[in-house]
Amino acid sequence: MLSEKILSYHFQLKPSGHLPSGIEWLLPYENKETRRCMTLFYDRYYNDERKRIFILGINPGRFGAGITGIPFTDPIRLESLGIENSFRKLQELSSVFIYDMIKDQGGPKIFYSTYYIASLSPLGFVKDGKNYNYYDERALTEAVRPFIIRNLETQIKFGADLSKVYCLGQGKNYEFLKQLNQEHKWWKEVIPLPHPRWIMQYKLKKKDVYLTMYKDLLNG
User: Fold this and answer.
1) What are the Cα distances from residue 157, in Å, to 45, 148, 149?
2) Is the Cβ–Cβ distance between 165 and 187 less than 8 Å?
3) Range of the domain at 102
4) Is residue 190 a contact partner of residue 181, using CB atoms and an 8 Å limit?
5) pLDDT tens-digit profile of 162-172?
């Protein structure tokens, strides 16, 4: 089953490469509560062998996947799925948008039967106690590039729909994924979407416009 592949992969995931000074890995998968919640989530929504269309973010953040282990799913959204948890109920802006979008797509059961959300780097980064992206400094990008490639290829083998991939972020994340895809020829098309955090932070008044944009592009 797809759920077994996803869980086995994440539970065995180890950091690879030497990070630049001052940058640390986010390592949620060693936490028992994270593993318990992930198991409930993936057994519920991925207990089949169907191929999924990938939606790829940047890397896990401290308030979402960096806690729950599930991309763009903070502890509050996790409870909205009926998965009670002991995590501090911190809100991740990106998670709020993603679950509003999922609701627009017919709800979690329908959405996750078609899509698999992940990130270019399956592990996140922290610098000075704050979220840090793999592209925020060149030395970090180069240090984790082999790690990103290897882990994308591993997840693609789970059963990816190779006709297209959606990229969360229209800037550096998109350019990096597009470059990797040109080199490795994984997907036929890379389609950029505005990043949920950017929408929630800078375009909140137009949130409904962006929800419609997502719906149109995902269903296009």
Assistant:
1) 18, 14, 13
2) yes
3) 2-218
4) yes
5) 999 999 999 99
Q: How confident is the model at residue 63 (pLDDT cuts 50, 70, 90)?
A: confident
Quote the CA–CA distance of 164 and 89 in Å, as a whole number: 34
Q: What CATH number should be reported for the domain holding residue 98?
A: 3.40.470.10
Bridge partners of residue 217, in order along the sequence:
none
For residues 64 and 89, the answer to whether their CB atoms sit within 8 Å is: no
pLDDT digits (tens, 9 = 90+) for 147-201: 999 999 999 999 999 999 999 999 999 999 999 999 999 999 999 999 999 999 9
- CB-based burial label for 11 (10 Å; 0-12, 13-18, 19+): middle
How far, in Å, CA of 14 to CA of 184, rounded? 23
Burial of 27 (0-12, 13-18, 19+ CB in 10 A): middle
pTM of the model: 0.94
Encoding tokens for residue 33? 């509560």
The number of distinct structural domains making up the chain is 1
Distance between CA atoms of 186 and 128, rounded to whole angstroms? 35
Q: At what angle do helices 138-156 and 172-184 cross, to 10 degrees?
A: 50
Q: Could you tell me how many residues make up the chain?
A: 220
How buried is residue 185: exposed, middle or buried, by Cβ count under 10 Å (0-12/13-18/19+)? exposed
Distance (Å, rounded) from C-alpha 124 to C-alpha 129?
12
